[in-house]
Write a structure and sequence with these properties.
Radius of gyration: 20 Å
Helix content: 40-55%
Number of helices: 13
Number of domains: 2
Strand content: 5-15%
Largest sheet: 5 strands, mixed
Oligomer: single chain
Amino acid sequence: MNNLVLIDLETTGTDPKFDKIIEIGAVKIKDLEIVDEFCSFVNPERKLVDKITEITGIEDSDLETAPKIKEVLSDLDDFLGEEPLMAHNMDFDRSFLEKKGVEATFLDSLDLACMLYPREKKHTQQYLLKNLCGTTYEAHRALEDVKSLLILYKKLLKRAGRMDGRVKREIKDNLKDENWELKSIFNGKNKGEDDYLTEKAEANKFCPKNLPQKVSGIPMAHLLSWLFYTETGNMSELSYWVRRKYEDFFRDVKIGKCKGECNFFNSNGRLF
């Protein structure tokens, strides 16, 4: 998926019921290149707490003469058009946008990162950019955040293009009935050798400790990347047996009943 809008919000806090948007940044992507950008402060009609100013560098004086949210969202709507929106940890941005009536196809690069780099210690945008892309990243200004996200998104697409073909087929098979826009990423042919898991392999550990507690949107696909990769970077030949034997487990995950199972994986438990 090479045509979309990357978006990021800065807010007065983390609760969309009470907190307000103070900055919106977005870039329009065509063929994985920036063709247009949008950035605006938003007057929250309240004073910022010191912590938010410390994190973002945004001060009350920056917002006093800024347009109010209704005006900014009108301009943003003209900018977005019909393109899908992507953010890293989109649940956060989506909660604020939907509260203000923004309707779009929402995509989360965090989903892809968890699937494609399961052995990383963290999946925050800042961590992944530093450790996968070699990019020093100063977070928490909206436009800078989305431009950095494009670097990460390109890295994720490259990884998807090089992943083991058998794993890709397994993921495609289990996603065929899922309504997930990013599943098209796994349709293409492999473009190179899949060396990521070989490089990151840890002896005698089938599953890493950092299985996500939250499986957003595509729970089956999240788990496939943990269950079907072996230490050598190939898909387990026992994948069919695992899927049949643990189909109740997969069903529980799909409806959100996965806390106990996630704790099992987080303690380095093995299925077989």
